[in-house]
Amino acid sequence: TKEIRILGIESSCDETAAAVVVNGRDVRSNIISSQIDIHTLYGGVVPEIASRKHIERVSQVVEKALEDAQMTLDDIDAVGVTYGPGLIGPLLVGVSAAKAIAWAKDLPLVGVHHIEGHISANYIENKELEPPFGCLIVSGGHTHLVLVKDYGEYEILGKTCDDAAGEAFDKVARAIGLGYPGGPKIDKVSREGDADAIVFPQGKVRGSEYDFSFSGLKSAVLNYLNECHMKREEICVPDVAASFQKAVVDVLVSHAMRAVEEFHFRKFAIAGGVASNSALRHAMEQACQERGVAFYRPSPILCTDNAAMIGAAAYYDYRKGIRSDWSLNAIPNLRL
Ligand code: KG4
Ligand code: ZN
């Protein structure tokens, strides 16, 4: 059978990325140009600056992805691109670039949902992984507990009612003076802290077993910091970080395992930027092992925003005959 070679493009937030993926799982190149250094100066992603940087970089990133794959556009069978959810300006840059390439080369265009991309990152390093399985997607913008019924077929079991898990990490990191992006910094400093030092509340959502809420936890951390300040007590940053991280990980794992039990999943995967958190990986692995469930998690490079995952997701849509037309637009609040 013929190889299907997909050029994936991703630009939904602050990473300009392009990749070449063969038959959905074989990554021939994976180029990520991060803007983190620029946005760090502002303490978070500035959408307007992100858009401009994507424009400056997208062509080079695509060229580099082809070069690393030792291919030219003539070798490509389809172009896959993230069209939502994400920041409107940044998304538009990727969508426009993908359309231009597809139009110029007369290639099929496949619009990909960003979350579907994150989920599909798990197919790349686990050639045997196939639906159905459960998946927890935790990133800066999303916290979704999903039943992956088949390729491209999802049922959302639960999601966050307020902040995303990564957003909570970033906000708490800022409050304890660790800077942006907070997730990796909290992860690191937590290793020197006592996770049982402070008991922060696990966010509970009334009437829902699977939904998440992290804004209460964030407020609890802020209140704790204020109290220390008023009492002139010293704040132990590693303890606060570790205790906060534990509260997040505990609620993520308990919801995930409740779903494992109710839906009898034999396989469970995690995805998204927060899936590189070492405490979450460890706790999920252990919880899955105890239940005899196969656990999957992408390498950190495939957890963050990248285009290989978009190429993987686009392949399964492509195989189903799904094509986008020239009216494909960026949709900031696209639903799964
Ligand atoms: O998936 P991603 O790269 O972008 C979005 O689609 O949002 O996720 C970025 C998020 C940020 O909030 C970042 O702080 C968080 O993932 N993150 C982490 C870790 N690495 C990245 N959170 C906790 N622990 C980590 N090691
Ligand atoms: Zn993402």
UniProtKB/TrEMBL annotation:
Domain Gcp-like positions: 27-311
Main location as per UniProt: cytoplasm
Protein location: Cytoplasm
Superkingdom, taxonomy of origin: Bacteria
EC number: 2.3.1.234
Name of one Pfam family that matches: TsaD
Reported cofactor(s): Fe(2+)
Cofactor note: Binds 1 Fe(2+) ion per subunit.
PANTHER family for the chain: TRNA N6-ADENOSINE THREONYLCARBAMOYLTRANSFERASE, TRNA N6-ADENOSINE THREONYLCARBAMOYLTRANSFERASE, MITOCHONDRIAL
Family: Belongs to the KAE1 / TsaD family.
Function: Required for the formation of a threonylcarbamoyl group on adenosine at position 37 (t(6)A37) in tRNAs that read codons beginning with adenine. Is involved in the transfer of the threonylcarbamoyl moiety of threonylcarbamoyl-AMP (TC-AMP) to the N6 group of A37, together with TsaE and TsaB. TsaD likely plays a direct catalytic role in this reaction.
Cited HAMAP family: TsaD (MF_01445)
Protein name: tRNA N6-adenosine threonylcarbamoyltransferase
Gene (name only): tsaD
